[in-house]
Amino acid sequence: MSKGSTNTNMPLPSESKAKAKTLVVDKLDSSVSIDMEAPEFKDFAKSMVDYIADYLENVRDRRVLPEVKPGYLQPLIPDAAPEKPENWQDVMKDIERVIMPGVTHWHSPKFHAYFPTANSYPAIVADMLSGAIACIGFTWIASPACTELEVVMLDWLGKMLDLPAEFLACSGGKGGGVIQGTASESTLVALLGAKAKKIQQVKKEHPEWDEHTIIGKLVGYSSAQAHSSVERAGLLGGVKLRSVPADEHNRLRGDALEQAIKEDLAAGLIPFYAVVTLGTTNSCAFDRLDECGAVANKYNVWVHVDAAYAGSAFICPEYRHHMKGIETADSFNFNPHKWMLVNFDCSAMWLKDPSWVVNAFNVDPLYLKHDMQGSAPDYRHWQIPLGRRFRALKLWFVLRLYGVENLQAHIRRHCGFAKQFGDLCQQDKRFELAAEVSMGLVCFRLKGSNERNEALLKRINGRGNIHMVPAKIRDVYFLRMAVCSRFTRSEDMEYSWKEVSAAADDLEQSEAAEKQ
Amino acid sequence: MSKGSTNTNMPLPSESKAKAKTLVVDKLDSSVSIDMEAPEFKDFAKSMVDYIADYLENVRDRRVLPEVKPGYLQPLIPDAAPEKPENWQDVMKDIERVIMPGVTHWHSPKFHAYFPTANSYPAIVADMLSGAIACIGFTWIASPACTELEVVMLDWLGKMLDLPAEFLACSGGKGGGVIQGTASESTLVALLGAKAKKIQQVKKEHPEWDEHTIIGKLVGYSSAQAHSSVERAGLLGGVKLRSVPADEHNRLRGDALEQAIKEDLAAGLIPFYAVVTLGTTNSCAFDRLDECGAVANKYNVWVHVDAAYAGSAFICPEYRHHMKGIETADSFNFNPHKWMLVNFDCSAMWLKDPSWVVNAFNVDPLYLKHDMQGSAPDYRHWQIPLGRRFRALKLWFVLRLYGVENLQAHIRRHCGFAKQFGDLCQQDKRFELAAEVSMGLVCFRLKGSNERNEALLKRINGRGNIHMVPAKIRDVYFLRMAVCSRFTRSEDMEYSWKEVSAAADDLEQSEAAEKQ
């Protein structure tokens, strides 16, 4: 199709204005509603409530990994939107026909891929309310409740984790929390704050350097085991990030960090940012925050703690030893939307001094100014997007309707299930653990080559009864079994292990057949 | 509080491990569910459905702007999360007690601030389903339906706007659409893609320049009337953005853009990116895309079209003349979550060649690789965050349950209401329009000084019956009346005008009193 040829039927401006006017008058005179009416909405929404409960309570019985091939969906629906409205009953019917065959069921107890994403009834109901209020909380005045509940919920949550008071708004200092969309955004926001801070500092020391010269010298650090989003934050922020080798337990250590910083300083670079991961994606290893934080503080390097998955466990006192050194951090982030039963998106981030982020992002047009500026945070300055939903409602509902005790029990149950699976694995002499069982994650492999394990995983996922993804550390390929579902029971762990074991039997048979 | 003192009660690792084990065993043995049970969820969610319908159908009767002062909420709730779970009935009761007093009612027909944010029953129900499935659609395999419905919905929507086929996935070329969170993110994503493309090109021409030297020379363009998020994208992306003066109708013109580009080229800079705004925030002016696109193409500058608000109107043929020149664009963005009845967040973005964005962001760890890579888009490479909700469901439900005809009627009704308000304004000799009525926006002011108009707005918002925000163009301050609610009727325009008029009476009286 040649450029612009789709637009040939476009009316000329003069014609179109006349047409628009007629249409407008018609519609204004009409008393017919174009919207779904409230009684119909109630029927539709209540029918959806029943569907949701049925879906979730029985998700265990569905094949966890879909069998569809790429492109499956397009032939199942029309190739253009309908001109006339359809019935909601027809839309409901299409969920099983069109959508469900292509859904990977993240909340099945048979789903063990990635890390969990949260799902709970209280959070779903809170999101309904958020959808109804549908305010955009970019400033305090745009919906005071949206900003203020977020401030208080981040204090509640910070207290649950026993974060140092400097991070909390209720301490009366500069610090406070904010809900970001994802941990990736938190990492990027912290990086941009750290970048702004360091540029300002270096400009004072070297007024002869321009900003791009300084940026060209900046260097940040993370463990080689850090999440891919850290590398991506470096790409997006246009600065060098150096990957520092982890120790034999996959942890970033203070001496390795210090050595890297010293080398870079000697090479004329400017260290500005370090990401300390508490609970890595590959193996749920914990960087030594106590060591790395002290080193970073010594060299005036911003410390960002990425505890995206494992941070939820810090609501249990017995796991807080992993946070030792938290007082050295400038920013801390974890995702209640991963392991704390608050539906995506809800990534909690605390900053000791948000002004570096606020000043880096601040653009303040007249239409967003208001009389109360300065008396409450205008969260738009704390994040990448301008718009933001009323997400604090999800935290409020989940914290109240579970209570801290049940959220702790949820964490402890998942850790217990991982231990159970790890024990099953160690009882089978064909297998070995690739790392110590950590939180809700078990890293394991068949003894032998990477190829054997790749073949094993292919068989496991091919059977479609459980779903896992692999990882590789220092060229050793292994399988990751993450406990993900809040519906998981002890029997599910037995089932999942049987699936792994059956796939291994199958692999051994074909290996034997090949040898003959 | 001294550093770290909140952590003094933290158990030592050895103690904590023992404690954890006991707790885990207790919980695993327990058959008591820690989660809200399905029947209770159904009662709670259905009660929320009734609340939502009641809230929205009667939102007109609430004071649109809350009367609370900063800090109102904290004393209304406890200062820490409860240890034990509460009843959902108590949480429901607190909505009116704690939340509603601090809500700015964006969906009231008396809300005229900013631009609309969408809210509809079909979108709310779709979001419920999205919350139940709660998949994270970062790759195709992570939930094929999530990716595939998005591909097809962006094609449906692109066809509704009559976008050139090059932007659509169904054309079989490189192009396609994606749902971003916000227009701010789309502007940033396009900027980063343009930056990556230009850096690669310049590296070939000047292999002796390093990347930071090139970045230091890059310069992008937008109208002085562009949204604040454009300036912010420049800050985030670490590149210069130049603000080009708009013409007397607040439109960016081709000659002004070309002059700026020529000056920068003469100064040794490298033009790489231009944002063309269709429907500015201040006055809903339309940059001349036909002129600017041609100029940008000539100088090999990426054209990003930001039609965040007004883009929804292009589903009506009579407004498409504003898109003339769309074939020159590299990326196009508008927000169905503003004016097309799809709840936030749903910002639709199309790219003619997504590979520039994909390659700029691509980090590909093993745990995210899958066998089907390349046969369907892995949307995580198209956006800033890694995680993403199943947002295409909202588009699907809204398009089917309204139908194109009713969505067009919605746009035309809003445009008609703005016309009506503009006429009322022009019939009052004390007032003047600050710009031509455009789409659902009326820019107006009292004849006379800016100070008079600031005083007028303060009175209007102080009365709390309607809510507006101001803007300023070339030092002329004016009020913006945006038609925002889907519940708006012709009588609401009369009501809002009476409020403005009464505030003006009030102002005139106090002006007269001051003179005496």
UniProtKB/TrEMBL annotation, chains A, B:
Residues where N6-(pyridoxal phosphate)lysine occurs? 338
Q: Which cofactor does it need?
A: pyridoxal 5'-phosphate
Q: Which GO terms describe its biological process?
A: adult chitin-containing cuticle pigmentation; anesthesia-resistant memory; dopamine biosynthetic process from tyrosine; long-term memory; regulation of adult chitin-containing cuticle pigmentation; response to hydrogen peroxide; response to wounding; serotonin biosynthetic process from tryptophan
Out of the domains of life, which is the source? Eukaryota
Extract one GO molecular function annotation from the record: L-dopa decarboxylase activity
Presence of the UniProt keyword Repeat in the record: no
Q: What is its EC number?
A: 4.1.1.28
- Give the record's keywords alphabetically: Catecholamine biosynthesis, Decarboxylase, Lyase, Pyridoxal phosphate
Identify one Gene Ontology CC term for this UniProt entry. Answer: cytoplasm
Concerning InterPro entries, the annotation shows: Aromatic_deC (IPR010977), PyrdxlP-dep_de-COase (IPR002129), PyrdxlP-dep_Trfase (IPR015424), PyrdxlP-dep_Trfase_major (IPR015421), PyrdxlP-dep_Trfase_small (IPR015422), Pyridoxal-P_BS (IPR021115)
Give the matching CDD domains: DOPA_deC_like (cd06450)
Q: Name one Pfam family in it.
A: Pyridoxal_deC
Q: What protein family does this chain belong to?
A: Belongs to the group II decarboxylase family.
Q: How does it assemble?
A: Homodimer.
Q: What is this protein called?
A: Aromatic-L-amino-acid decarboxylase
- Source organism phylogeny: Eukaryota, Metazoa, Ecdysozoa, Arthropoda, Hexapoda
